[in-house]
Predict the structure.
Amino acid sequence: MVGQCLSTMLMLVSMHWFVFLLNLPVAVWNIYRYVKVPMGNMGVFDPTEIHNRGQLKSHMKEAMIKLGYHLLCFFIYLYSMILALIND
């Protein structure tokens, strides 16, 4: 979560607007999830709470969406790096 927010702020400071706007919703979602953790839980993904309440399906769906997002970001960053190397 810290890394995601830090990279989002770095993109804002370096004026990479497209990448900043791509990272902003995920950073906001991570902060929202962290703030909404009930008192006494170990964290956002408390294993006992997931299995006790039957939330496994929704957590798996969220994990797959984040995996797709990070794969998309990886290829965008890879394309940007290759483009920067070619232009130099």
Notes: The helical segments are 2-13, 17-35, 47-53, 56-87. The mean pLDDT is 84. The two ends are 33 Å apart (CA to CA).
